[in-house]
Amino acid sequence: QVRLVESGGGSVQAGGSLSLSCAASGYSISSYCMTWFRQTPEKERERVAIVLRDGTTTYADSVKGRFTISRDNAKNTLYLQMNSLKPEDSAMYYCAAFIAPSSLYACYALSWRQYNYWGQGTQVTVSS
Q: Does the pLDDT of residue 102 top 90, yes or no?
C-alpha cells in the first residue's frame, strides 16, 4: 500500500527557512518522479518542484534559487529545503507521486489532477 506522509511545516518570519519531508512507503521513490505542490484557498494547486527518477530537478520560477528538492533513496524520503521564505510562499504543501509506467519526462506534462498518490499536506505560514 502506497503512503506519503509529509512533515516539517510551521510558521516562520520572512527571510527564514523551513525543511519539509515526505516519507514514502509501499514503493521506491527512486523509481518514479516525485513532486512538491502547494495550494492556497485563492489559487489552484501549483507545482513547486519536481525530481525525476534520474535525479533531474526542476523548479517553478517563483521558487528558483530559494528552494531545493532532494531525495534520500535509502530512507525513501523526499525533501524540500525552503530558504529566503516570503509571505507569498504561505500555503499547504503536498508531496505527490505518479506511480505508473511512463517515460522519464512524462511528469512534466502532468497536471496535479493526474497524480495518483498524495500526502495529507503540511501547512507553511510566512509572516512579514
A: no
